[in-house]
Amino acid sequence: MLRGVARRILADPENVTPSSEAARLNRAGEPSPADHLAMMYGKPSAGRPWNAQSLKNILLSEATLGYLMHQHRPVLDRQGNPVRLCEGLWDRATHDALKKVILARRAPWSRRTNRDYLLTEIALCGQCHTRLYTQTSIDEPPRYTCTARNEGWRQAWNCRPAPLIRAHSLDAFVEEWFLRELRDGLIYETVYDSGNGIPERIAETRASRERLRADREAGLYDAPDDAAWFRDRYAALGRELAALEAEPQRDRETFMRP
Questions:
Q1: Angle subtended at Cα 186 by Cα 181 and Cα 192, rounded to the nearest 5 degrees
Q2: Total-model pTM
């Protein structure tokens, strides 16, 4: 399920975010990490929702590479490599690509919803042409309504009476129109291909060497015997990196398919 989230974000980083994916997982009824853990131990699910920040933290963590973690950093073995507990959810290049698109994004100033209304951010008022919002209450079904005049928008000054329609009625009308006008059609999806694995192994080896260098600069290998071990291990990583760079590579790419 998390691999699917990563693929969707990498295929369309402008529109798919950890927040939108958390909302999608909640709509789909996917158990949150807490509920999944409870069910693994034979306990009932409490229906706790996915949290956008928690999902973001999962996607950015190097634990998804299968590493043993301590204080948000991979634990290193005596050779300076991260201790791997299991196969990762994805490779180093995918991890770096996720970090790049997730950390570079700035949340836009727009009102969104985690409810699965069909026309959220799509339906517009037929009089003042501002966006309709959803209203809910205990004793009435959800409805789309225009709130622009009540909020003092200048272009909605003459929006009287403000439109209000039950959500299921408008959703049904739009669905009927959509199927009647467009009928069957070929749908394409954006696919993320991670390549042949050589670029990922190069990135992994470089990351191990950088971690080793950072620990050296922090004074962890100042003792004479530690210094000798550091030189041997650093040289071995350099030889491994040179051998990998000599192999043919197929970079990751994004393409469309039916």
A1: 135
A2: 0.49
